[in-house]
Design brief:
InterPro entries: 5peptide_repeat. The chain has about 220 residues and is mainly β. Helix content is about 5%, strand content about 20%.
């Protein structure tokens, strides 16, 4: 006769400590990294080139003077990650949790072969203030309350993303696309918008600040 076991569920298998993996290493090429960093842990002076971060837990960790070149982050928790004096050259973030991450102190290089991409990421309360991300892509991302003040987003795309409460002020949106994005509202007079593409429905709200109504 079968019964329901009253034994507790097994504890999840702990992830490897990335501090141990990265000890005494300053250059990693095309490696796959799986593990976690304790809250407040600091990684300093490491260059990652073509590396894949797979399901890593890096929330509230710190990377100082690090460089990420064409790296992929998949299924990672990067919430409140601190990036100090570090550089991001290209790269892809997919299915990542990135709550309140601050890109403002991160140098993003314009020489990347492919522009940076965010796909199906949670970026609520993230800060891209003052960051140059030309031709970047945010596809199907949660960007609620995200700050794009003073950012350079020329030719960027936000297809399928939720922009409710996002801040655009003195933002360069020339030739960018908000097609299929939703929830955005900002003063077109306070931003550079020549060539910006919007949907007829969502985009109509941008005219409200001008006192115009589309019926």
């Amino acid at each position: 006769m079968c019964g329901v076991s009253d034994r507790p569920d097994p504890e999840p298998t702990p992830l490897p400590n990335l501090l141990t993996l990265l000890a005494d290493r300053d250059y990693l090429v095309e490696e796959t990294l799986e593990g976690e960093l304790p809250e407040g842990a600091t990684v300093t002076g490491v260059e990652f080139e073509g590396c894949t971060f797979e399901a890593c837990r890096l929330a509230q960790a710190r990377f100082v003077r690090c460089t990420f070149t064409d790296c992929r982050f998949s299924g990672c928790d990067l919430s409140m990650l601190t990036l100090t004096d570090s550089r991001l050259i290209g790269g892809v973030f997919e299915h990542c949790k990135m709550l309140a991450i601050n890109f403002a102190s991160l140098g993003v290089s314009p020489v990347a072969v492919e522009p940076i991409r965010f796909e199906e990421c949670r970026l609520q309360f993230a800060a891209f203030a003052g960051v140059a991300l030309p031709a970047a892509t945010w596809r199907d991302c949660d960007l609620r309350e995200t700050d794009f003040t003073n950012a350079v987003l020329t030719a960027a795309s936000f297809a399928g993303s939720d922009l409710r409460g996002a801040t655009f002020s003195n933002t360069d949106l020339r030739d960018a696309s908000l097609i299929d994005a939703n929830g955005y509202a900002f003063d077109v007079r306070d931003n550079r918008v020549r060539g910006l593409r919007v949907d007829a429905g969502e985009g109509a709200r941008l005219l409200e600040v001008l006192g115009l109504t589309i019926e």
